[in-house]
Amino acid sequence: MTLSLPGRTVVFDYGEVISRSPAESFRQRLEEIAGVDPAPFWESYGRNRGPLDGGDLSVVDYWQAVARDSGATWSLSTIHRLWAVDFPSWIDPEPGTVDIIEELHDGGTRLAILSNAGFDFASPLRHSPVGSLFERAFVSAELHDLKPSASIYRAVLDGLGITPDDMVFIDNKRENVEGAEALGITGHVFTTPALLREFLVSLGAE
């Protein structure tokens, strides 16, 4: 089965679109390894994600910042253990979305990824099985930028050599979709693969 959107380039977010939401069990595992009060740990985990995804913190710097905010000092081995639990929780694939991507690829539609992600995600976004279907993967840390800034969408348009009218953008966060739509890009807030398929068909995919 194929889907085709002639003349359009479909750009996908990765986390919680191509991948599933992290299982709750990953939180327990991180708390066990960290061995600190969960409240400051999770506050710092979320707050420092922007600098990590924006390219201002390396992976080690990120976890060291979480350690400081949690009143801890972690060895590199502990940091690696935390990373080894956290990282795969964000790349577990959503099969329904992967199937749609494969159908679009097989139908000749141009595909790209735009993800707010740290440097460590660059290789799997490009070289994983589903990553092999994309023409380009734009990683926010490498661009030192973050969705929903207008500049990051312009970087994607320039990198692909397309206009806003040519681009369809899929993201699970409404603010990111609205940022793209403000430039004239067609957007869709992802909730389920079934509704994504309906949206693509409404654009003329067949």
- Biggest pleated sheet: 5 strands, parallel
Q: Count the beta strands.
A: 5
State the strand order across the main sheet.
3-2-1-4-5
Question: What integer is the average pLDDT?
Answer: 97
Helical content band: 40-55%
- Secondary structure class reads alpha/beta
Low-confidence stretches: none
Radius of gyration: 18 Å
**Strand residues, percent:** 5-15%
Distance between the termini: 10 Å
How would you describe the shape? elongated
N-to-C order of helices and strands: EHHHHHHEHEHHEHEH
Secondary structure tally, helices: 11
Overall description:
There is one protein chain. The chain is an alpha/beta fold and 206 residues long. The protein is built from 11 helices and 5 strands. The chain has a 5-stranded parallel β-sheet, sandwiched between helices. The longest helix has 14 residues, at 76-89. The relative contact order is 0.19.
Structural topology:
Elements: E1 9-12, H1 25-34, H2 38-47, H3 49-53, H4 59-69, H5 76-89, H6 95-106, E2 110-115, H7 122-127, E3 136-139, H8 140-143, H9 150-160, E4 167-171, H10 174-181, E5 186-189, H11 193-202
Keywords:
single chain, 206 residues, alpha/beta, five-stranded parallel β-sheet, 11 helices, 5 strands, 49% helix, 11% strand, elongated
Briefly, what is this?
This protein has 206 residues and is α/β, with parallel strands linked by helices.
